[in-house]
Amino acid sequence: MTVVGPFGLSVRDQALEADVQTGLAAVEAGLLDATKSDVPFITEAAQHLVRAGGKRFRPLLVMLASQFGDPYAPGVVPAAVVVELTHLATLYHDDVMDEADVRRGVPSANTRWDNSVAVLTGDFLFARASHILSDLGPEAVRVQAEAFERLVTGQILETVGPRDGRDPVDHYLDVIGGKTGSLIAVSGRFGAMTSGADESVVDILTQYGERLGVAFQLADDVLDIASDSHESGKTPGTDLREGIPTLPVLLLRAQAAAHGRAEDLELVELLDGDLADDALLAEALKRLRVHPALEQARRDTVRYAEAARATLAPLPEGYAKSALVELCDAVVHRAG
């Protein structure tokens, strides 16, 4: 059993391990190549988050999905580079919107330079992803375009909030289905599609990625409250401080509205206050870490991961399927 990829995912087959490791190394080289520019400053800014590392969750899923076809097909690695470049580009933009200070354990681009540089660097990465994508054919371009539309729609929905009468939790699940699920679904789809897997397999791995993506984001929501910066790579409570709705907070608000417990109402009032004060943020985190809403968010994370696992049932048994199953377990493990 060898540990590869994010979260200590273990691979129990030497051939699969070799394929995944070789593929991820090629993706890393492809990311560095794709972020080079004739302008040295652009190269520095574009490679800022590439060199900071990261889980490479999406490329890993591309590599595993490609095992259901020809994992050595020429489009597999470029497809993995495309999804990771797209993901990186969204991080530059997210950090501007969230006014984040830290990303992947290093100063965010907007902190190191400014918002304009961060936004334009994200745009540069989108452009490079599109250039690589154009070589993968019109179907790949269409799939990416649809996913990108869903991603942006999810961000807009998050920004404007739920319409009157809409359940905030249901709205939030739509948001993360677009913001996170869409691109992870594309990772599964691209891996299967570019490897020449059967269309039924492509559909299964797309659905798997969608559900796993939601579980992945819910695990991040839990981590924003329950982890320290060493575990998550960003400042704990970043989402709380910026007033970004996450599942634990939405569940807390629902419980406070339904039951009116004094301690819940006090915590809601604290969250609605000015959390720029480090002491107040620490107090909010302390209370949320022992609140039942956080445990409910963990249970919902497990539920989506189990739904992703169930999607895999029709696939043939083998080491690749086992690794995808374990990926579900790894996502849940992140949420504790």
- The backbone outline, from C-alpha atoms, is globular
Cross-sheet strand order for the largest sheet = 1-2
Work out the helicity level: over 70%
What is the overall number of helices?
17
Major beta-sheet overview: 2 strands, antiparallel
Give the low-confidence spans: none
Please tell me how large the radius of gyration is: 20 Å
Question: What is the total tally of β strands?
Answer: 4
Mean pLDDT: 88
Distance between the termini: 23 Å
> How do the SSEs run, as a string of H and E?
EEHHHHHEEHHHHHHHHHHHH
Fraction in beta strands: under 5%
Structural class: mainly alpha
Helices and strands, with pairings:
Blueprint: E1 2-4, E2 9-11, H1 14-34, H2 40-46, H3 48-51, H4 57-65, H5 76-98, E3 102-103, E4 106-107, H6 109-112, H7 115-133, H8 138-160, H9 168-194, H10 199-226, H11 229-232, H12 238-241, H13 247-259, H14 262-272, H15 278-289, H16 292-311, H17 319-334
Helix pairs in contact: 1-4, 1-5, 4-5, 4-9, 5-7, 5-9, 8-9, 9-10, 10-16, 10-17, 13-14, 13-16, 16-17
In short:
Helices cover 73% and strands 3% of the residues. By secondary structure, it is mostly helical. The strands form 2 sheets. A two-stranded antiparallel sheet has the order 1-2. Strands 3-4 form a two-stranded antiparallel ribbon.
Structure description:
By secondary structure, this protein is an all-alpha fold. The protein is 73% helix and 3% strand. The protein is built from 17 helices and four strands. The strands form two sheets. Strands 1-2 form a two-stranded antiparallel sheet. It has a two-stranded antiparallel ribbon with strand order 3-4. Strand 1 and strand 2 (9-11) form a beta hairpin. Helix 1 (14-34) packs across helix 4 and helix 10 packs antiparallel against helix 16 (292-311). The longest helix is centred in the middle third of the chain and has 28 residues, at 199-226. The two termini are 23 Å apart. The model has no long low-confidence stretch (mean pLDDT 88).
